[in-house]
Design brief:
The protein has one domain (about 5-115): Non-ribosomal Peptide Synthetase Peptidyl Carrier Protein, Chain A. The protein starts with 5 loop residues before the first helix and ends in a 19-residue tail after the last helix. It has three helices and no strands. The protein is mainly alpha-helical and about 120 residues long.
Length: about 120
């Protein structure tokens, strides 16, 4: 798989969130702008956020580690999409150049979730 662009990550997160909201019989927002805060808007709670990150890791077949993401920006979809795409790109480069990237799908690191 090629490296994901922020727009790819944003599109996946949007589809994922809309599906989950519909499953909960909630109406998804019309759009998720780059400054849309998923937690403050009530779209996800802390468990839902962890589940979303795990789903993204499975979808992109890569580990997503949020430990280097600013906690203030962690739930803002634009910042999150850019961060995840950058991390996926770095892992892709490491795989292309023959360095070990670890297992294809691994659990989400929640280290950064602790305050």
């Amino acid at each position: 798989m090629s490296a994901a662009m922020p727009s790819d990550v944003h599109a996946f997160l949007t589809r994922y969130l809309n599906e989950r909201l519909r499953e909960q019989r909630r109406v998804p927002p019309e759009a998720y702008g780059d400054d849309y805060d998923l937690l403050l808007s009530g779209v996800v709670d802390s468990l839902g956020f962890v589940e979303m990150i795990a789903a993204a890791g499975e979808h992109f077949s890569r580990e997503i580690d949020l430990s280097d993401l600013d906690p203030e920006k962690m739930t803002v979809i634009g910042h999150l999409s850019i961060f995840i795409a950058g991390q996926l790109g770095q892992q892709h480069e490491e795989a292309v150049h023959g360095r070990e990237c670890g297992p294809e799908i691994v659990p989400v690191s929640v280290r950064s979730m602790r305050g």
